[in-house]
Write a structure and sequence with these properties.
Order of helices and strands: HEEHEEHEEHEEHEEH
Number of helices: 6
Helix content: 10-25%
Largest sheet: 10 strands, mixed
CATH architecture: 2-Layer Sandwich
CATH class: Alpha Beta
Shape: globular
Number of domains: 1
Structural class: alpha+beta
Strand content: 25-35%
CATH topology: Pseudouridine synthase
CATH superfamily: Pseudouridine synthase
Length: about 230
């Protein structure tokens, strides 16, 4: 194994078959390279490094991320084995045939405790569709004294959608530092408390329903224990 990746534990595989592999993305790791983080390590690079080193690696096959998570977000990321499967998964995401669920910690007590948030975000306003709107469903799973554990289902996939919607609701994510002044809130967390929890979709090749779950990240589990 190269020195670049030798200090890391192997990535956790959440699901794998002939066409797809789902991995656990740790918080603090970019999904793919960006202009700003051009020299940073990425999940895509680590995944391909480990995949190519396997004895069962199909020659010439590369892993392609089917979607992305923010650097601070932990949880499940799906990769396609080769371009053909990547294109089929892209169609499913574009047609909103992939259900994504997240776990978030948000400040305060969301009211109502279950609901749907709709608003026109920047991407909606740039859209050619004058009726384009971003939609996020949520349900409080556990209410603590200063924050809530919330199950979140974004029905659209706009940049920062979940973070903006909860900020607009008056219950920003714990650890949020982009859309609020962190000093205005008591709770502290080293990152935005958002975890990609579940993916549900019909397999792009077999048509069989697939469900993948990523256990809650260790830092979020520890936060729950410390705030009991």
């Amino acid at each position: 194994m190269s020195k670049k990746f030798s200090s890391h534990r192997p990535l956790t595989i959440l699901y794998e078959d002939e066409h797809l592999i789902a991995l656990f993305k740790p918080a603090g790791l970019l999904t793919v390279a960006t202009d700003r983080g051009r020299n940073e390590e990425t999940l895509e690079a680590r995944a391909n490094h480990e995949f190519s080193a396997r004895s069962d690696h199909p020659e010439g096959v590369k892993l392609h991320p089917c979607h992305r998570l923010d650097k601070d977000t932990s949880g499940v990321i799906l990769f396609a084995k080769g371009h053909r499967v990547e294109e089929r998964m892209a169609d499913l995401f574009r047609e909103r045939q992939v259900k994504k669920k997240y776990i978030a910690f948000v400040h305060g007590r969301p009211q109502p405790p279950r609901g749907e948030m709709r608003s026109r975000l920047e991407e909606d306003r740039r859209s050619r569709d004058p009726e384009a709107v971003s939609i996020t469903r949520y349900q409080v799973k556990e209410q603590r004294r200063k924050f809530a554990v919330v199950e979140v289902e974004p029905l659209t996939g706009r940049t920062n959608q979940i973070r903006i919607h909860f900020k607009d609701l008056g219950n920003p994510l714990v650890g949020e530092n982009k859309f609020i002044f962190r000093k205005d809130f008591d709770l502290r967390f080293k990152r935005t408390a958002l975890h990609a929890w579940e993916l549900f979709f019909k397999h792009p090749v077999t048509g069989v329903p697939v469900g993948i779950t990523a256990p809650l990240a260790t830092d979020m589990r520890n936060f729950l224990e410390k705030t009991r």
